Amino acid sequence: MTGRPDESSTALEVRDLSVVYPAARGRGPARAVDGVNLRIGKGEIVALIGESGCGKSTLARTLVGLVRPTGGEVLHEGTALDYSARGLKRYRRHTQLVLQDPGGALNPKQNVYDAVALGPRLHGLTEDLPLTVHDALARAGLRPPEQYFDRYPHELSGGQQQRVVIAGVLALNPSVIVADEPVASLDASVRGEILKLILRLRDDLGLSALVVSHDLGLAWNIADRVAVMYLGRVVEQGTVEEVLLRPQHPYTRALLSVVPTGADDWRPTLLAGEPPDPTAIPAGCRFHPRCGRWADADPDTRAAGACDRRTLPVLAPDTSGAACHLLTSSHLENA
Amino acid sequence: MSSPATVAGPALEPPAAATRRPRTARMPWARYVAGKLAAAVVSFAVTLVIGFVLFNMMPSDPVRTMTRGRPVSQAELVRLRVQLGLDKPVWQRFLDFVNDTLHGRLGYSWEYQRSVASLTMSRIGPTLLLMGTSFVISVLLGLWLGQRSGWRAGSLFDRITSSTALTLWSVPTFWLGMILLMVCSVGIGPIHGFLPAGGMSDPSLPQSGLRHYVDVARHLVLPALTMILVVYAQYVTIMRSSIIEEIGSPYLLTARAKGLTDDNVRRRHAVPNALLPSVTMIFMHLGTLISGAVTVEAVFSWPGLGDLTYEALKIPDLPLLQGTFIVFSASVILMNLLADLAYRFLDPRVRAQ
């Protein structure tokens, strides 16, 4: 695959990242993120896909410095994140977060102008503030911007609210946007507009973005690369075409199989077993209790205990491929 | 059957149309105020009726109660009844009462032989002093403790604050007042009383100048402390729960992600938004300020409106009770009106309704 790109083209990278939440009553500590390598190139949109509870939101929050990792590091343009108050503040000019529910993400008592101006004011960028706010709103597609200045969040539609949130992000001129389910709470028609906006911002401003979603269609529409997360770890990653058209990992295949194709032989693979629990991660491959391929494997393979005992290596940040014992072994046999 | 194209028609209108909604659609300020004002006037009218019914339709005969235990002849009873205006028909008495109220006299006290309005005016100062002091302190104390403990709910600070506040809230006012009185002014065991037991000032001291103010302040400590201790818990609990409700809001996460420190997220975003329910409560308590002190004023013989009401109850001086009832109700109505108006400033969502 592609060689390791030089540091200068990397916007954001995480290495061996893990986030462990302390044990709640009667359960073990939750390993929400458990060894993740991920790279977001400059001007690249990466989609992080996975079911709820797989740690993708925690990963997103760790990327913007809201959650402090228990292991590994977050690198912004090659330098590790500094978790001092001043270091974080500096970092937050560059990396901004967009949340799922735009209605909640805006302070109900702040009008649009103040909401967008919040970031610049915090970072002392008050020179030409009205102009900054004006530009940010215009770039977020709210035109004419002046008309929105003294509106309050409750007076706007969901799509307009999300545009205000995005304008608030743009006002800081960040290099990376981390969007946690940015369109999940919006109507289908508005969804397309917001996605188009993110794409245009990438093209016009060279923004990088990590878009967290459980929606494969969204990944197909806007992402350059896709990473599939399962129980705190990336199990498969690659370009959109690689992951979505030629999925390797049984989990990715199962996710994709439930997308209706319209073909007569469409047969979704429904995942059996318990939904994943980050407080009790299975030994070996963490997907094996729900893996159809492991269940159907021949007795020899099962007896060898590949999936339920042998630890899987963590995927390197930039490789395309899947972390699966069965794939690796069949690959070796073919060779 | 209609064609699908006509069905889809309206949906194809440009979405921008919605953003150009004329701003006059919002309710104008004057109409809002007029509406609230009208509601307040209606409430006051209803209060007049209730106040009159309450004190004039009571099953007991005031003349008999007043003369209880004294030898009075039938002729004297009749004369007293005529003197108090109790011989007139009910509707006549109601009209007199309304007329009196609208002229600001509020009736004529049987006991004091003065208009209720003038009695009220002479007693309102001490009440406002006592209630104002304890109100301001309890609001500030309660809100500060509430937002602190809500922000770190479950912490040691929170547990101590909440349990102390709730314990004090559950204590009967007169009981707490008496305990404080015993400890601080009578003295228990080795402790000597160091604060005056009652009244508002020491009559042996000059009634003006710095020494008088210090004297009044010393008299104020115990009744105000009693009020504060019993009342502040309400602000703690309401502020604490609104902060906890606010903590989960994504906009706090947004503010944090923009680089705001935790303390500033609390001060600039969480607290102002969580204040709304407390503001409602503050205004409601402002209304009851004048009347709320009956127990405390009775325990500490503080010469305020509460004490006046308590004295009137013992006689019973019906016009005086009726008058103070109207004053108390009017202050609640007035404060509610102010709360409604203040809300429009504080919450943009109300502004748009």
Automatic annotation (TrEMBL), chain A:
Q: Does the keyword Nucleotide-binding apply?
A: yes
Alphabetic keyword roster: ATP-binding, Nucleotide-binding, Transport
Q: Which GO terms describe its molecular function?
A: ATP binding; ATP hydrolysis activity
Name the record gives this protein: Oligopeptide/dipeptide ABC transporter, ATP-binding protein, C-terminal domain-containing protein
Question: Which GO BP terms, alphabetically?
Answer: peptide transport; transmembrane transport
UniProt keyword Nucleotide-binding present = yes
Which InterPro entries does its entry note?
Answer: AAA+_ATPase, ABC_transp_ATP-bind, ABC_transporter-like_ATP-bd, ABC_transporter-like_CS, Oligopep_ABC_C, P-loop_NTPase
Pfam families reported in the protein's UniProt record: ABC_tran, oligo_HPY
Q: Identify the residues that the record assigns to the ABC transporter domain, covering every copy.
A: 12-256
Q: Which family does it belong to?
A: Belongs to the ABC transporter superfamily.
Question: Which residue positions does the secretion signal occupy?
Answer: none
Q: What NCBIfam families does the record point to?
A: oligo_HPY
From TrEMBL, chain B:
The UniProt keywords, alphabetically, are: Cell membrane, Membrane, Transmembrane, Transmembrane helix, Transport
Lineage top rank: taxon: Bacteria
One GO CC term of this entry? plasma membrane
The ABC transmembrane type-1 domain covers 124-339
What the entry lists under Pfam families is as follows: BPD_transp_1, BPD_transp_1_N
Gene3D superfamilies found in the cross-reference section: MetI-like
This protein's membrane topology, according to the annotation, is: Multi-pass membrane protein
According to the UniProt record, where is the region Disordered? Answer: 1-20
Q: Where is the composition biased (Low complexity)?
A: 10-20
Subcellular localization, as worded in the UniProt entry = Cell membrane
One BP term from GO: transmembrane transport
**Membrane-crossing residue ranges in chain numbering:** 29-55, 124-145, 166-196, 216-235, 274-300, 320-343
User: PANTHER family annotated for this entry?
Assistant: OLIGOPEPTIDE TRANSPORT SYSTEM PERMEASE PROTEIN (PTHR43376:SF1)
Instruction: Name the family.
Output: Belongs to the binding-protein-dependent transport system permease family.
What this protein is called in its record is Peptide/nickel transport system permease protein
Organism, by scientific name, is: Actinacidiphila yanglinensis
